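cron nightly-structures :: item 1 of 1
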Amino acid sequence: MKEIYTTTVPLRWGDMDQIGHVNNTVYFRCFEQARVEWIDLLPAAIDNNPAYVVIVHTECSFLKELKAPGTVEIKVFAGEVGRSSLVQRYEMRRTDAPDVLVATGSAKMVWVSPDTGRSTPIPDRFKNTLVVG
């Protein structure tokens, strides 16, 4: 797999649930934040292609408990690439314990044409970043 992006996300007191650990939905929000930041790096003006992304499947394996405050690092990898789809894979670690993997996840993204509402080939601006080399 090719690493395509890395970001950090702060954990907030409000991210914790009633038993004092970060709620499982926050893991998905962290993955989403990394995904959106990656998409925003490559605006439609680059190749004049307004296709947008929808998520058709997502999952997370919770490996270690997280508590706030703190910051997590999310690494984004390009997984399987199809005609109109990309599986992004994620690794999450606390920045103060970078050797400890706390979660892994994935999201299958499909590009959609705003004109037809149907899947469309991955825009070149994204496809070019996915080439391993």
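cron nightly-structures :: done
The two ends are 11 Å apart (CA to CA).
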